[in-house]
Amino acid sequence: MQAAGTIQHLKQLAKMTQVRRSVQEALWGMCAADAMSMPVHWYYNIDDIRKDFGGWITGFNTPKNQHPSSILTLSNTAGSGRTAWSSGSDRTNVVGNIILHDKLKFWKASGKTVHYHQGLQAGENTLNAICSLRVAESLSGGKFANVADPAARAAVLADYVCFMTTPGTHRDTYAESFHRDFFSDWQDPRPTSSSAVLEFAEQRYKEKINRSVQDSQLNAIGCLPMSIPFVLFSATANEDRAVSAAVEFARLTHPDPRVENYVALYARALHATLNGACLREQAKAALMSPGLDAWDTCKPFIREAGGFPVASAERLEVHQNAVQELGLACYIRGALSSMFYLAYNFPDDPCGGILANANCGGENCNRGAALGALLGARAGYTGDSIPQEWKDGLLNAQKKVQEILEQMPV
How many CB atoms within 10 Å of residue 407? Predict the structure, then answer.
């Protein structure tokens, strides 16, 4: 009996070690995919990628100062959406006053070609990926027994407020609508303690979730990066707890009723992949789900891509056409469909998947972060990994990921 118990214990330890490796590579994959896409983020004409970088993206690059399809200067500096959508011109600028303290000049620049991530260097991460790492730091440092507990969300939100409102904490120029909307609402009460920030966020959710007209800019795949660590730190918990942890947090940053089911769909796929499930099967199931209903659209592209050599320009073109058809922009249904399409086609090829995602353009950073976490999770579980060269080239993430992993519960 004792021998049987020892064997079972050793099996459990081996399983936990395998899952831990999967979590580790998921973090690396998330950061690598975001940084790879950063210089061509929101390139909607993919020919501009080759034009600006002398060919398709094959590694980390510094963004050009000018962006061929930028609408940064049309964005609302006082809240969500575009300036033209703003309900009033007398609202206080969130950009420059509350967040992005030295970046307002780029949002107000003459012309419409300022790059969203101007000033970043090759291998740097965008704000959303950096915020995701901050979430992971808060969860690992907090030693929470259950990251679905309100205390975990409170700690994360308090750190988020401190990080975003403190000058010099990051170098990115752009903050998408959900950040601007959150701090537009935050600036009057200005809560900072963990309990006060959580209370504010929960009250804000209750007020916004029942609005007759929802903010379409919150119905976006940008809800996933900061939710991913809640799944990673629930990898050894049951699936329902992992999903609950991700959804309960996402609703506080993205108070839109359409978002929650999509976060749950992604969280289930990531949790399963962390625990050894076949990523291709998870991607297919997601694409066939009622929420996406995209499998029939994907099938012709999958068949066509299979007729060309792996890593060929012809196969990449099929993937680019597929993403164009499924959803190139940020809106979550289309973006998630494109992400799962890429996951289906690159389940055991994290390098190929991350590069294809970057070269598909559009909303490739948040889509890439979600894809990279899945590809990394699968790679880690099967004994593969994100390339060491990429890990070494990540300027923000290299030290942060190591610190997070050192603090993770065994």
Answer: 14
What is this structure's pTM? Answer: 0.95
Q: Which residues have C-beta within 8 Å of that of residue 208, sequence separation ≥ 6?
A: 215, 255, 256
Q: Determine the Cα–Cα distance for residues 289 and 284; give it in Å rounded to an integer.
A: 9
Q: What is the pLDDT of residue 11?
A: 53
Residues 359 and 57 sit within 8 Å (Cβ to Cβ): yes
Sign of the Cα pseudo-torsion (54, 55, 60, 64, in order): positive
Instruction: Give the residue among 12, 11, 63 at the shortest CA–CA distance from 42.
Output: 63
pLDDT digits (tens, 9 = 90+) for 105-146: 999 998 779 999 999 999 999 999 999 999 999 999 998 999
Q: Give yes or no for a contact between 127 and 34, defined as CB atoms under 8 angstroms apart.
A: no
The tokens of 408 are what?
Answer: 């993770």
Asked if 335 contacts 303 with a C-beta cutoff of 8 angstroms, the reply is: no
Q: Where are the beta strands (DSSP E) in 43-191?
A: none
- The answer to whether residues 292 and 333 touch, using CB atoms and an 8 Å cutoff, is yes
Residue 383, helix vs strand vs coil:
coil
What torsion do the CA atoms of 239, 243, 245, 251 make, to the nearest 10 degrees?
Answer: -170
Contact 256, 243 (CB under 8 A): no
Q: In whole angstroms, what is the distance from residue 246 CA to residue 223 CA?
A: 10
pLDDT in tens, 25-81: 999 999 999 999 999 999 999 999 999 999 999 999 999 989 999 999 999 999 999
d(CA 339, CA 351): 15
Residue burial 267-287, b: 16+ Cβ < 10 Å; e: rest = bbbbbbbbbebebeebbbbbb
Domains of the chain, each with CATH number or no CATH: 21-407 (1.10.4080.10)
Question: What single string gives the DSSP state of each residue in 228-277?
Answer: HHHHHTTTTS-HHHHHHHHHHHHHHHS--TTHHHHHHHHHHHHHHHHTT-
User: Are residues 21 and 386 in contact, defined by beta-carbon separation less than 8 angstroms?
Assistant: no
Kind plus residue range of the DSSP H or E element containing 345 = helix 332-345
